[in-house]
Structures are given as structure tokens and as C-alpha cells.
Amino acid sequence: MRIGLIGHGKMGQEVERLALQKGHQIARIFTEAQPLRERDPLTDMDILIDFSVPAAVPQNVRAAAQAHMNILEGTTGWYEHLDQIKKLVRDSQIGLLYAPNFSLGVQLLFRIVVHAGRLFNRFSDYDLWVHEIHHHQKLDSPSGTALTLGKLLLNTVERKRELLIERPTAKIAPQQLQISSTRVGSVPGTHIVGFDSLSDSLELTHTARNRSGFALGALAAAEWLVNKNKKGCFTMDDFLDEILGGRDSQ
């Protein structure tokens, strides 16, 4: 692939490093000093991969749409614009694949959590929680991955109907599911889903050792988007469904 890379921070640099290892080309790099602009000609590339900042995402997708260029969106914290971006993608007939986390391990964790939520839905003695830990330079809190985990649990555990993402100042209501965050050092990313009762506690944990897993997953998804010539909005579920042969037991 000929890749247009948006953002050249730690994730962007890791995508660049591994893309070159896999034989891809980095056609252009867009940074804050040299941003992607609407009406930029993008004829020298096959796909845009965006790991920039949330505020830049709508403009980056608009620029991709005007250039009829597929885009993989790895930035989080912009989902309040998702409806308008989906419409833009449909109208321009480009392909967009977005995900809160491109790690294949995290994507499999999502499916495990759906199954676990359905099991624990039958046992009301268990309370639920989500905690995430990231490096102190991460811009959004909670992480997009933690929010996704929380929403999966809301969809499968009937007694939980509301996410609590702020620091509680009073007793937590039974229908609330707390998502908490820690920002420290250079932690690439840890996500924990917990099920707690008076008798015992069970935790599902994903710990990223480095950024390579995120970058490799993003490149695999980008290859899928380009090679399959996909048009429309997709998530990692669509990518995994094809690999796994359709919806699994979730």
C-alpha cells in the first residue's frame, strides 16, 4: 500500500516503522505543522491512516471524502461527530474503518466481555466495573476502549443502565457502572473488566506490552479495506467477522 499517514506521534511513528517493514510505502506524512487540508490532491496514495487528535478528525474525513480516498481512523475522542461523518462517508462513497483500539487482543476481549456479560446477567450478586491505565500524555479519559467495554456490558447486563465516568461524589446507584482511569508514566494501555461479589471476584485483563499490537492491527485492517475495495463505514467487527467466518457465538 501507499499510505498517507496523518499524525506522527508515537503511534504514527510505530505505524510508519512497521509499514515499511511489511513492504508498504509512506507516501506522505501530515503533521500539525503540515496538516491535511480539504482539496489536497491525494493521487499518490491508496489509503489514509489517521492517528492524530480528536479535533482534527472531521476535517481529515472531509478531506478524504473530497479526494475519494479511503481512510482508517485510529484517533479516539471524536465519536460525538460519528453520525455526520457516517453520512459524509455514504454520500462520498469512500471507505472508513474506525475503532477505539486496533489491537487484535483487545478486539477479542470485546467478544469475551459480551459473553461474560451474558453469563453474569443471570447472577445479580455480582457488581461490575471497568478500569483503564494509560500514559500521562493520553488526551482523552476514559479511553475509547474503556467506553466500548462499558457499553458492551450495558447491552448485556440488564441491571446496569448507565455509565459513570466522572469521579463519584456520593453513593453509586445500583444501575450505574463505573469506568475509572489512571494516567501515569509511559503505560501503553491496560484495560480491566471486573465482576465482584461478597464471595469472590473475577477480572478480565488486557495489557499491551508496546504499541506494536495497535499498529499491526491497524495495518491489517487497512490492507483489508484496500484489498477488498470496501465502501461505507466499517469497524473491526466487520474485519474480524470475515476472518472468523461470520458472527461467532456472541
Question: Can you offer a commentary on this structure?
Answer:
There is one protein chain. With 250 residues, the chain is α/β, with parallel strands linked by helices. The chain folds into two domains: 2-102 and 212-244, Rossmann fold (3-Layer(aba) Sandwich); 104-207, Dihydrodipicolinate Reductase, domain 2 (2-Layer Sandwich), CATH 3.30.360. 35% of the residues lie in helices and 23% in strands. Strands 2-1-3-4-5-11 form a six-stranded parallel β-sheet, with helices on both faces. Strands 7-8-6-9-10 form a five-stranded mixed β-sheet, with helices on one face. A hairpin with a 4-residue loop joins strand 9 and strand 10. The chain is elongated and about 60 Å long. The protein starts with a strand and ends in a 6-residue tail after the last helix.
> Helical proportion?
25-40%
Beginning-to-end CA distance, first to last residue: 33 Å
Rg of Cα set = 19 Å
Can you tell me the CATH superfamily of the largest domain? NAD(P)-binding Rossmann-like Domain
What spatial order of strands do you see in the largest sheet? Answer: 2-1-3-4-5-11
CATH architectural type of the largest domain: 3-Layer(aba) Sandwich
Q: What portion of residues belong to β-strands?
A: 15-25%
The number of domains: 2
The CATH topology of the largest domain is Rossmann fold
Topology of helices and strands:
Layout: E1 2-6, H1 10-21, E2 25-30, E3 47-50, H2 57-66, E4 71-73, H3 82-92, E5 95-98, H4 104-120, E6 127-134, H5 144-156, E7 162-164, E8 176-183, E9 190-196, E10 201-207, H6 212-227, E11 232-234, H7 236-244
Parallel strand pairs: 1-2, 1-3, 3-4, 4-5, 5-11, 6-8, 7-8
Antiparallel strand pairs: 6-9, 9-10
Helix pairs in contact: 1-6, 2-3, 4-5
